[in-house]
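**Protein record**
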Amino acid sequence: MAEMKDVFGQEPHPVEDDLYKEPMRKRRKSDRDQRFRAFPSVEQSALKEYEKLESRTRRVLSNTYQKLIQSVFLDDSIPNGVKYLINRLLALIEKPTVDPIYIGLFGSTGAGKSSLINAIIQQAMFLPVSGESICTSCIVQVSSGCCAQYEAKIHLLSDQAEELSIKLDPYIRTQRRDWDGEAAEMHIWPLIKHVEVTLPKSDLIPEGVVLVDIPGTGDFNSIRDEMWKKTIDKCSVIWVISDIERVSGGRAHEDLLNESIKACQRGFCRDVALVVTKTDKLHLPEYLRERKAGNQAIQSQREAVLERNEMIKLQRTRILKEKLKRKLPADFKVLEASDLVYTVSAQEYWQQALLTEEETEIPKLREYVRKRLLDKKRRTVTKYVTEAFGLLLLTDSFSSTENLPNEHLHTSVLRRFAEEKVELLEKAIGQCFACMEQPLQEGVRTARTSYRCILRACLVRSKGNQGFHQTLKAVCLKNGIYASRTLARIDLNEALTQPIYDQIDPVFGSIFRTGKPTGSALMPHIDAFKHSLQEKMIEIGIRSGWKYDSCKNNFLIQEISAILGGLEGHILRRKRRVYESLTASVQSDLKLCYEEAAQITGKKACERMKDAIRRGVDRQVAEGMFERAQERMQHQFQQLKTGIVEKVKGSIATMLTLALSQGDGLYKELADVGSEYKEMEKLHRSLREVAENARLRKGMQEFLLRASPSKAGPPGTSL
């Protein structure tokens, strides 16, 4: 099935907020089993255990929800505590199993993005392959199984991939000219920004993975430009696609790498890899002539391809790792990846004239996708079961008759302790964000001394102004940003602030990383705050006579993890606004300058437009443009700190009120959920057993792989 969004957009569907809303229905068992077809048997076993654990947890939550609804159904008013509990239960019941993993394929026209997706999904000509007259014209998402929910205008259905591909033609392919040179028939693609294709459940790509075919920087107009950036920022993985003949240099390739690294800074991306395509293309006599002497003799085209692929991997891995180290913190996870570069051949995947299927590395990319999804499933289910256990602890404590004589005293002690720790957290966040001050100042100084050279590089064309006049006018009309089909994407605001980004990028990445607690990392400070509260609760529980594993004490510990765990999503969503505040500030300051230049017409208009831009930038720099950009970013950091502290204060106060104040605002005559609590307790304990089983299976699989013989080359090749 395929769904399209048009450029006119559509209002999102309203979200129901009904206390008595029915939870979503459970999947059929056969349907669940089909989701694992793409995984080897060892990984299937692990996934089924996690799926079973999650399914049983949802059943326990649903039973608890139904009991509570029946308890209060006829009441005129429902206490706030019970409302909180019922809404939290419903939210957990309807929480998505796993948010999709978006893998963005990012490359220029002709790099082989669509061919690569076709090979990965085992459909040779499903997406258009760039040629003289055809290329992909918009952002295309390909996934297996259930379609993601979003507003849509058009639905296309087909049981056959070939038939659906034909139906999709007018929406995703741009045909510049017919073979006889005449203008091609009118296609609908100019009205389409986004296409989503959902395939039947696959033996190759698991449900929950979305492959995004992102057109290159010169492949679409300015209407799609903002959507292009948002799509990249949504991807947790980016594959930079470059064919073998372009990978060794060129501005377009460097621009793609830089945009991908920026996505790690401002978006959700945690992994970047270079995928070198069309690696079967090799002229053997030329390769042998340029090959360094002294190496082992090459006997065939196949040996030459494999040798060159290995050299490309070593060279590009070293270059890419050095580039990532300059921009990202030293312990960023992608720097530890064993594979940063893949050498693939979609053509050889189908033909296997030179290379085996494994040597085309298409299966290696599929394995990478599976491992990412399996790891995410493990982390998501662990978090889900833990959060559900905490909620059942609270539910069970509501109907408890335990009423400690010193409870109000201990509550006040805990409140004071939490208030003190929030103040310390606020100071720690301030110190963390203060690490940006020095690199920002250095970046501003560099920007002030280099901005004229940067402008010259952007405005001066080696071939003169012919054809550049209209492009420059478009740049000014779009406030300094323009994406065309013939030139690389132009962004004067980004170019002018690049010296600042060069200084702040490593520190910015350190602030938003996860890892060892350091002065510059944000999340470890929040984790330390969480652990200090949990330790205090245990201490109070022991002194007050609570058992270590009592419902009340365990709820407090688990619920704090759930509350503070939700902060990470809030921080990631705000991160892009903070990061882009520099360019947004410069763009705002130069708005009048762009408007003035855009109005220029007549003789020598191009040079006069350039002069107007230069004068405008000079004037703004003299008036403190870069210093204002620095202040705006620091203000964004201050707003982020304030938002974090307010959320923590409000959530902790609500939690303590609910957990430590029986009677007031709560409801004592709820249905007995003791059996559900006991079952949830067993499920929580079984998390460790499931994880140990997965490790044992993985170890056995690795042993068997080491013991198995390696595959030989394809028939007819000399070894």
Notes: Residues 404-654 form one domain. DSSP finds 23 helices and 13 strands in the chain.
